[in-house]
Amino acid sequence: MAIYFLxxxxxxxxxxxxxxxxxxxxxxxxxxxxxxxxxxDHSGRQDVMHKEIILPGEFAAHDMGWAHxxxxxxxxxEHAEVRKDARVAREYLVALxxxxxxxxxxxxxxxxxxxxxxxxxxxxxxxxxxxxxxxxSDSRNFHAHLLATTREVTPKGLGAKTTVEMHDRRRRxxxxxxxxxxxxxxRKSWANAANGxxxxxxxxxxxxxxxxxxxxxxxxxxxxxxxxxxxxxxxxHRTVVAERIREEYQARVASRLQRSPQLAAAAAPRSxxxxxxxxxxxxxxxxxxxQSAQNWRxxxxxxxxxxxxxxxxQSAQNWRxxxxxxxxxxxxEVRKQSAENWRxxxxxxxxxxxxxxRKQSAENWRxxxxxQPKLSAEExxxxxxxxxxxxxxxxxxxxxPSQSKARTRDHDLSL
Length: 415
Fold this sequence. Notes:
Number of strands: 9
Radius of gyration: 31 Å
Number of helices: 15
Low-confidence stretches: 406-415
Shape: extended
Distance between the termini: 92 Å
CATH class of the domain at 6-209: Alpha Beta
Structural class: alpha+beta
Strand content: 5-15%
Mean pLDDT: 84
Largest sheet: 5 strands, antiparallel
CATH architecture of the domain at 6-209: 2-Layer Sandwich
């Protein structure tokens, strides 16, 4: 069952946000912030299914290479703002229908992004992400991040602030609707675009941007658990905030049932698990697994084909980039850090007495011996002679000529 979700958020310096950091994370790339000197490396991400930068169509005949360079675009956006509390970017986060195939989702996001770009004349950095494989995550959570500049884009750089950034007084003077009505219009546009894509794919599911009351549905909206609280619960921690939200939800449901006797027969869900279960589509696990595998194969077909050597080079390059982002430690600090890590690991191990340690050591030795190839006495003797000859050869190479002569002379005298 497709669900409606569109969230508009601002990225500002007052909250510690960086447009360069946001772009690197969403696109899965390594970008250096020229304003702060920090390097943000997210090139190891494997869930970025599609990414591109969309610009207004009026500049199709111009050289817009500076804007298609992701690092250059967002460093330009950072340099365009001088205030310490400036807003440097806006983001539209949308949930994509899981019923659509990968290419259908890409087409949907492109069409909606094109509508926003032509409307506000900003640059839009699009990234489509696959569902995460964390425990408790939803395998249908395909979503798109649409990162927009706060200024209009031109062939020479960023220009004036977009109309989205205007406060209501300036909007009224310019003959525009309020910012709230503007957002409602964008929400409606996304619903229309998604429903159009579902209809074109011959899928019956639809989404609606309106409230339940506006849709004529007489039920209490499901509770919203904040992301930080949800992540804590996913890791097995109990949270007072989530329990309070659910208790308030149960109280609202009970109050609604009292006001509407005709709904009393329909029992309200008593837990968040039942609420989630009711919202699940009528798919069996095998169908979901097949659909997930098919989506993954389609995404893999769009990726460049790399041989083993290219993969090794890419892996080494990613590792070097990661190392460049780590703090530089001298040998003493490295030893201290290694010792600290070892102590932490030891603290997590079960406490064993001397007898148990001896048994464990003997068991590990026996397992090691069983894993070794069985050699006869003659093979063992030959192997020992070969090792001795290699040692003598390496020893003679490492000695200087004078040492070799002195040793030869001593050997002659001993004979």
